[in-house]
Amino acid sequence: MWPVSVKKLCAFCFCASAFVFLIMTFQVIEQLGQFEENTLRQKLTHTPLQDPVIVWWSPLTGELGRLGDCGRNRCFFTVNKSYHSHPHTKAFLFYGTDFSIESLPLPRHEQHQWALFHEESPKNNYKLFHEPLITVFNHTATFSRRSHLPLTTQHLEDLSALRAQTHLLPLAYKNQLRRTLAPVAYVQSHCDPPSDRDVYVQELMQHIQVDSYGQCLHNKDLPPHLRDSTAMDDHDFYQILAQYKFILAFENAVCDDYITEKLWRPLKLGVVPVYYGAPNVRMWLPDNRSAVVVDPNEPPKKLAQYLKWLDKNDGEYLKYLEWKQKREISNVNLVRELKDRPWGVHDISQDSFIDAFECMVCNRVWENIHRQEKKLPSKVWRAEESHLTCPPPELFEFAVSPSSSPRQIWRASYEQSRREARALGRMLRRNRNFTVTQFWREVFTD
Ligand SMILES: *[C@@H]1O[C@H](CO)[C@@H](O)[C@H](O)[C@H]1NC(C)=O
Ligand SMILES: *[C@@H]1O[C@H](CO)[C@@H](O)[C@H](O)[C@H]1NC(C)=O
Ligand SMILES: *[C@@H]1O[C@H](CO)[C@@H](O)[C@H](O)[C@H]1NC(C)=O
Ligand SMILES: *[C@@H]1O[C@H](CO)[C@@H](O)[C@H](O)[C@H]1NC(C)=O
Prior knowledge:
Elements: H1 2-46, E1 53-56, E2 66-70, E3 73-78, E4 89-95, E5 113-118, H2 131-134, E6 139-142, H3 159-163, H4 171-177, E7 184-186, H5 197-204, E8 210-212, H6 235-242, E9 246-250, H7 261-269, E10 272-276, E11 292-293, H8 300-312, H9 314-319, H10 322-325, H11 332-340, H12 353-373, H13 409-430, H14 436-444
Parallel strand pairs: 1-3, 1-4, 4-5, 5-6, 7-8, 7-9, 9-10, 10-11
Antiparallel strand pairs: 2-3
Helix pairs in contact: 5-8, 13-14
Subcellular location: Endoplasmic reticulum membrane
Domain Fucosyltransferase C-terminal: 184-339
EC number: 2.4.1.-
């Protein structure tokens, strides 16, 4: 009996190890295969044969070469500027904040479409906000609702983030906290921006108590672990803010549709935002009674009186939180916008807005390729002034300060940017490359 069993056992062991060996070999072969496929793909990305090439004229994505699928269409995206003269190059993508006159892909060929992506604050590059410059682009993705790919809600994840009551505190508790806390909180560390908000807030503080945690008008400290700007999305920071009745949500610039997390954060927490920024903010609020909207033509004292009145009248204050308590978002425009936007925020199951922008351009490039194949005239896209527009920055009149004050620079900077935009517009239409010196000469002969 024994010898037979041992033989069987040995046979079994042999078979088993052979099996394991085989599996491992297959895995290695498969990995090698994948490796080869990857290198092949990498090679392909350096010599795109038939796909249109789209060049990022900015290091934004850092991608040296990627074949990207956009539905049924495919394009080759690269930050490698040496593709400027490649015969398959159909479009250039620009990032507003680093759009610079020092190097532009000129001359621009008939087939070169230009696309502008600008989601940041207007103050980062005022030049683009003037008709002669914005209209040189074919495609736009900006905070403006009128752009080809509006990014107005870029700081809002979804409706459920607004409806959430995770941080909402009962009013009775907020009233108790009022013994140690001001009714209003302010958290800004970038002082004296174009909206002139600090001057307004400083005046407001003469008439109502404000706890100011940021560097601007600072009068209250955050716990040490929340002091750097990366802690702005920390749970502990949210808990501190959620204790307040009001948060000053003042944007750094005043332009229609320019809305940031400053508005959404208090709405998510269940605190009433006192909002100053986009004049058309009502188009975006979850409900007409969800924020106190500052009227810049009224003195801050009047706003202070209104906030104090709400602080004393629970019923009136609660009207601003009714939408939150019922989880009801009555603004159909906001609901539609979040449903229709082809990108997500902090959501790996959806495209990012950069993916969506790249694909919008890729699909439009393909649209014209297909039209050419069918001998149809090409479709023409043009950015309009409304795709990126902001009125000149204005100072609040109730405060005077010396002309050397940092708050004075924005208006001058805006006017200067208008001259630069006119000069650049003329030079781009002449369609020859130019040096920085030639550009400044053009600006000053204006
Ligand atoms: C950029 O593309 C060119 C070919 O157009 C290639 O020779 C060069 O190596 C690329 N540069 C980088 C940094 O990949
Ligand atoms: C909000 O109020 C404005 C006028 O102040 C009105 O035009 C708009 O229809 C209202 N929106 C909702 C959703 O009630
Ligand atoms: C892109 O814009 C330029 C300048 O306005 C225009 O000449 C060109 O026809 C446009 N191309 C397309 C495809 O829209
Ligand atoms: C314009 O571009 C050409 C070719 O890229 C270059 O040789 C020339 O020096 C450039 N001229 C100016 C004024 O930058």
